[in-house]
Design goal:
The protein is an alpha+beta fold and 399 residues long. The protein has helices at 15-27, 65-83, 100-116, 125-131, 152-165, 204-210, 286-302, 307-316, 320-328, 381-397; strands at 4-11, 33-37, 53-54, 88-89, 93-96, 121-124, 140-144, 148-150, 169-172, 176-180, 183-186, 189-198, 217-224, 227-229, 239-242, 254-257, 263-266, 270-271, 339-342, 346-353, 358-359, 364-367, 371-376. The strands form 5 sheets. Strands 1, 2, 9, 10, 11, 12, 22 and 23 form an 8-stranded mixed beta sheet that branches. A 4-stranded mixed beta sheet has the order 6-7-5-15. A hairpin with a 2-residue loop joins strand 11 (183-186) and strand 12 (189-198). The longest helix has 19 residues, at 65-83. It is globular, with a radius of gyration of 21 Å. The two termini are 33 Å apart.
Length: 399
Amino acid sequence: MSAKSYDYVVIGAGIIGLSIARHLRQRLPQASILVLDKEEDVGAHSSGRNSGVLHAGFYYSANSLKARFTVEGNKSLKEYCRTRNIPVNTCGKLVVAMDEKELEMLHELERRGVRNGSNVRLISVEEAKAYEPSVFSYKKALYSPDTASLEPLAVLRALKEDLIALGVEFVFGAEYRGHQDNVVVTSGGDFICGKVVNCAGLYADKVAHDYGFGKRYTMIPFKGLYLKYAKNKTDVRMNVYPVPNLRNPFLGVHFTKTVEGTIKIGPTAIPAFWRENYTLSKNFRIKECAEIAFQETKLFFTNAFGFRDLAFEEIHKYNREYFISLAVKMVPSIDPKGFGEFTRPGIRAQLLDKESLELVQDFVVEADRYSIHVLNAVSPAFTCAFPFAEFVCQEYILR
């Protein structure tokens, strides 16, 4: 059977792949577009296992793509949810400090937020308690009214429905195996394309390497776990976060208020040993495990970006009492015995620069005329998806 031909083939049916396909269709109504994924439906990995938080754009340095797209992405995704009748919990967020040093960081976050156009401001502890009566913060708290939450899979499924209605084709169960000139070879068939757009998430680096891109990078997976508060849905009203360590891209254990009102704490950022290391055996690949173990061993012994300290701290979070204690500091009235089960784990597709031994904190795209590779689309990529997709299309795909 001869391979079918398309103008654009998008590899990966997560939020970035679907958003890019959406923008391509908006710009090119007559183009033939195919979305491939190795799983059986959209959002099987990072996007579908996302926390669902819509971020407000105050964590990121002013010259970053994250800073450029988060505020706009927050607005555009809320608008999309409104038009598609997808619920959004507009509960807002407090970032709290424990001491004078962390208070200084709150001021830095406010400065970043103002530069980025984020609606964010420092408030007194008394004002913070008006929003979250049981919260603790040292002298001040940072208030973000635009932070919200939604159900990621609801958005992904709606995008899939929209794209199918607009003539975009999907092939699932099609794992990338390689390419021969302009033919993408998969386990679900071969496909001829004018341009291929790599949005493969946890495997984006592998696909990019096959096309000669991203050679200085490799993916280091981190497992994220949330613990659900089973006692009730009322002990916490909104998202409550600690001051983050800006040396790494993780935001620390925090309270998330989900779209249906459930309270959960997390996530962890535990170094994983293979890319889909959700359980002790699922999708285990020995070569992949050896490659990642090699990189993590280097990071451990050099303590690059504080990796060794991070690893010890994250492993400590397997201790349930310790994990809960990190959250209780921020909301002392929460019942430590009120927590139930861990939610479904997620794996963060985090890019590592092998030359500098640093985690890459911003989005990374590399391309030529025939292939475009979204190498690093970490948090807040879900929030940024629509304007980031427009950027990728304008700067790399449609040029």
